[in-house]
Amino acid sequence: MHRIDRRQIVNKLIKDTVYDSVMEILHESGSEKLTMEEVAAKAGVSKGTLYNYFKNKEDLMDFVEQQTIEPIIDGLREIRGSSKSAPEKLRDTSRFVFEIYRTRKDYVRYQKEITTYKHNAEISRRIGEEHFSSIWAQGTLDGDFNNVDPLIFKAVTGGALASIMDTWIFDGAEEPDIEKAVRGLEKIYTEGFIEKKPL
């Protein structure tokens, strides 16, 4: 019979509560009110207990970043692992990323209140590097994509998704038209920007 590790359950509950408390503080007051004291008070734990789990604010924020980003990395890994074609994976990626905006308010708050442009670009690169390289390789090998430089492919696809999300986040768009954005990206991918005129 499998024994329940109560300490593990308590640790998870406390960390989940701390994470939710950080997100609430970001929503209510912004990053300027984010102190270890404020987080402990919001989470309903003593400051000493909080320091048992996180040695300082930087350690706490590393945890928050990991909790915020990991589900996104897992979701993209699932898309890459599917048996779909590269164009379908590209479409699924766009839809998945845009759905994050609608469903993951914690990620939106984190992006808006905590990350600097440089840090945001670093996170996007870390998340997108393997994902877009994999889709590019499959699409090129299967003949679904034109022979385009992988750096350009990653820059255009990752940059477009990040820019649209950033615009929604900083404009505070409540209900963006996700399907319209997905269709618009697909049109750019398949038709391009420049009208081909007869010679």
UniProtKB/TrEMBL annotation:
Annotated HTH tetR-type domain residues: 12-72
Protein name according to UniProt: TetR/AcrR family transcriptional regulator
Q: Which organism is it from?
A: Geovibrio thiophilus
GO MF annotation list: DNA binding
Q: Which domain of life is it from?
A: Bacteria
DNA-binding region in chain numbering: 35-54
Q: Which key words are in the record?
A: DNA-binding
List, for all copies, the residue spans of the domain called HTH cro/C1-type. Answer: 33-57
This protein's record includes keyword Signal: no
Pfam families attached to this UniProt entry: TetR_N (PF00440)
Q: Which InterPro entries match?
A: Cro/C1-type_HTH, DNA-bd_HTH_TetR-type_CS, Homeodomain-like_sf, HTH-type_Tx_Regulator, HTH_TetR
